[in-house]
């Protein structure tokens, strides 16, 4: 017997609508289940195969929940806001509002054909004024309460689509949609102050029934760090008075500051310096431009061997007043912290590897407790370890744990964890909780 899909499918789709099979009474539902994947964008003449792939999987799950006795609500609509919908309207020469209504008819016709359990009585379009007036209202409330603000930030810019792209939308330096070359561009944009709720989000993860794997991912995404903001004065900048400029860093380990033997700024931070008139060496300019260009074409930078270059600028370590070099390296990201770090190679894995690669000083300032227990801590002679003979350290790996401070001036002999607050105050630092 030949299956007449057009006749049979139309028959049952019509029956579903007549009997309101997929229209749950949400007010009386005993086991309501909300089953929404997303609304498609009307940014073309019709749906693409990716829409079918996503909506079919969602519908399979919805049918499974329905067989378990749930009152499944599977809404559908169209999300007409966005640059892609606008670009399509420009392409066909129509006003976006008019084009959205034209696309809407074909999109809904196609969505009905696939036989999903959509609740068609509840469909909505985000470009309907009756809908987006509430979007506008919510935004105004957030703005009034200081939760919406504008600031400049570096973005991936597609000059063809005229829009900002997420990192995932940049493939080998090109826009995944139109294959145009992507540019790094600084734009002033709207941001939501979600970090205001970071602590609540973290605490409430303990009360939700999610897998531990997902919870860990959420905690890492929020990225809570407790530490200090510390300022390092800059010196030996050509044409500038010493101390006029400084470098602020955020660190979770202020107890290791006596072991900071160099500073590292991100290429993005270096670019800002150049933009405001820093007269850097041509090799430095070339390095910065090269790294920033490469980052457009590389998504997994942690697979690439790290590089760096000395900026020619020195910083003053506020803990011991020693001058230390400021390097530029691709292992520091402009989007993390202040885009600059104090490098403590004896007690940080990335700093250690970089110091070994470029033969930079390594000074141990924390003695593991296992060794401290076997030796008497002598604050006068630092148990035989001094800063001078450590500049060419024979360490084979860094020690990143807690311990007893050495080579740390008046803090020698103190447990490193206990010394954090004292050292922060000693260098006029500011305690800070930071979120990614």
UniProtKB/TrEMBL annotation:
Q: Which GO terms describe its cellular component?
A: cytosol
Question: What GO biological process terms are annotated to this protein in UniProt?
Answer: leucyl-tRNA aminoacylation
Reported EC number(s) for this entry are 6.1.1.4
Where does the UniProt annotation place the signal sequence?
Answer: none
The lineage's top-level taxon is Bacteria
InterPro entries, sorted: aa-tRNA-synth_I_CS, aa-tRNA-synth_Ia, Leu-tRNA-ligase, Leu_tRNA-synth_edit, Rossmann-like_a/b/a_fold, Val/Leu/Ile-tRNA-synth_edit
Put simply, this protein is called: leucine--tRNA ligase
Q: Which organism is it from?
A: Candidatus Colwellbacteria bacterium CG23_combo_of_CG06-09_8_20_14_all_42_19
């Amino acid at each position: 017997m030949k299956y007449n899909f057009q006749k049979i499918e139309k028959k049952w789709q019509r029956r579903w609508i007549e009997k309101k099979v997929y229209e749950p009474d949400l007010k009386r539902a005993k086991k309501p289940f909300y089953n929404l994947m997303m609304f498609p964008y009307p940014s073309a003449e019709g749906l693409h195969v990716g829409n079918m792939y996503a909506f079919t999987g969602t519908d399979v799950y919805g049918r499974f929940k329905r067989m378990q006795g749930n009152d499944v609500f599977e809404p559908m609509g169209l999300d007409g806001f966005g640059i892609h919908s606008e670009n399509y309207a420009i392409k066909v020469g129509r006003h976006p509002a008019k084009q959205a209504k034209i696309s809407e008819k074909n999109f809904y016709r196609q969505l009905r054909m696939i036989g999903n359990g959509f609740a068609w009585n509840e469909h909505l379009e985000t470009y309907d004024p009756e809908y987006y007036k509430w979007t506008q209202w919510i935004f105004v409330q957030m703005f009034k309460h200081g939760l919406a603000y504008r600031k400049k930030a570096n973005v991936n810019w597609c000059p063809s689509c005229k829009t900002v792209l997420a990192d995932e939308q940049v493939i080998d330096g090109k826009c995944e949609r139109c294959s145009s070359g992507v540019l790094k561009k600084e734009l002033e944009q709207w941001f939501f102050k979600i970090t205001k709720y970071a602590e609540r989000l973290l605490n409430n993860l303990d009360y939700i029934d999610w897998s531990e794997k997902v919870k860990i991912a959420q905690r890492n995404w929020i990225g809570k760090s407790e530490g200090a903001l510390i300022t390092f004065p800059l010196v030996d900048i050509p044409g500038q008075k010493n101390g006029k400029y400084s470098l602020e860093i955020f660190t979770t380990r202020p107890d290791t500051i006596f072991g900071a033997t160099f500073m590292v700024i991100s290429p993005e931070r270096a670019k800002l310096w150049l933009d405001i008139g820093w007269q850097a060496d041509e090799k430095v300019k070339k390095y910065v431009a090269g790294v920033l260009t490469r980052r457009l074409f590389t998504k997994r930078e942690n697979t690439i061997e790290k590089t760096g270059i000395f900026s020619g600028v020195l910083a003053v370590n506020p803990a011991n007043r020693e001058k230390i070099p400021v390097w530029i390296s691709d292992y520091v990201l402009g989007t993390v912290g202040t885009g600059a770090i104090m490098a403590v190679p004896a007690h940080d894995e990335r700093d250690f590897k970089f110091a070994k690669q470029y033969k930079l000083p390594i000074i141990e300032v924390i003695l593991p407790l296992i060794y401290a227990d076997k030796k008497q801590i002598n604050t006068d002679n630092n148990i035989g370890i001094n800063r001078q003979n450590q500049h060419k350290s024979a360490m084979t790996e860094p020690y990143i744990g807690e311990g007893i401070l050495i080579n740390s001036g008046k803090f020698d002999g103190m447990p490193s964890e206990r010394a954090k607050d004292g050292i922060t105050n000693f260098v006029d630092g500011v305690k800070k909780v930071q979120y990614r």
